[in-house]
From TrEMBL:
Name by which UniProt lists this protein: Rhodanese domain-containing protein
PROSITE patterns referenced in this protein's UniProt entry, alphabetically: RHODANESE_3
Ranges where the Rhodanese domain occurs: 30-134
InterPro entries: Rhodanese-like_dom, Rhodanese-like_dom_sf, STR4-like
Pfam family, one: Rhodanese
Superkingdom to which the source organism belongs: Bacteria
UniProt xrefs under Gene3D superfamilies: Rhodanese-like domain
SMART domains with a match to the protein in the record: RHOD (SM00450)
Length: 149
């Protein structure tokens, strides 16, 4: 199945592009082959919550882009492949939409395409007041749960 016409990714270097949280949801809902990959840390999944895609009858893939201590996850591509992520479309999600750019680029370079980055991530970058939850998946009203993966 192709990407729905109303999902126009913002152009990006090295991957299919940036999409909004709502566009990510729409893509996941429209294409049975589409996969959501949450690249945040295990601590973030447990403390902040995770996307809930059960209504779409698909489970997100959880693979840390950066591990404890800020070390890159050298097994990232192997973890994706072990989870069955070998082609696209793939939607990468992090906390604010920054780490997921690197994940989308690496996946694309490895032939896992099209790969997209979710703008604003799960809860957005901190606002002027230093507080998150002003943008992102959660604020867009998309399904999520506090239950850790």
């Amino acid at each position: 199945m192709s990407v729905p016409a109303h999902i126009e990714a913002r152009p990006a270097d090295g991957y299919a592009g940036d999409i909004t949280p709502q566009q990510a949801w729409d893509l996941l809902a429209a294409d049975p082959a589409a996969t959501l990959v949450d690249v945040r840390t295990e601590g973030e999944w447990r403390a902040i919550g995770v996307p809930d895609t059960t209504s779409l009858e698909k489970e997100p893939v959880f693979s840390e882009w950066v591990q404890a201590g800020g070390r890159p996850n050298t097994q990232f591509l192997e973890e994706l492949k072990a989870a069955g992520v070998t082609g696209g479309p793939v939607v990468f999600l992090c906390r604010s939409g920054q780490r997921s750019i690197g994940a989308a680029r690496l996946a694309t370079a490895a032939g896992i395409a099209p790969s997209y980055n979710v703008l604003e991530g799960f809860e957005g970058a901190p606002g002027a007041d230093g507080v998150r939850d002003q943008k992102g998946w959660k604020v867009a009203g998309l399904p999520w749960t506090e239950d850790a993966k």
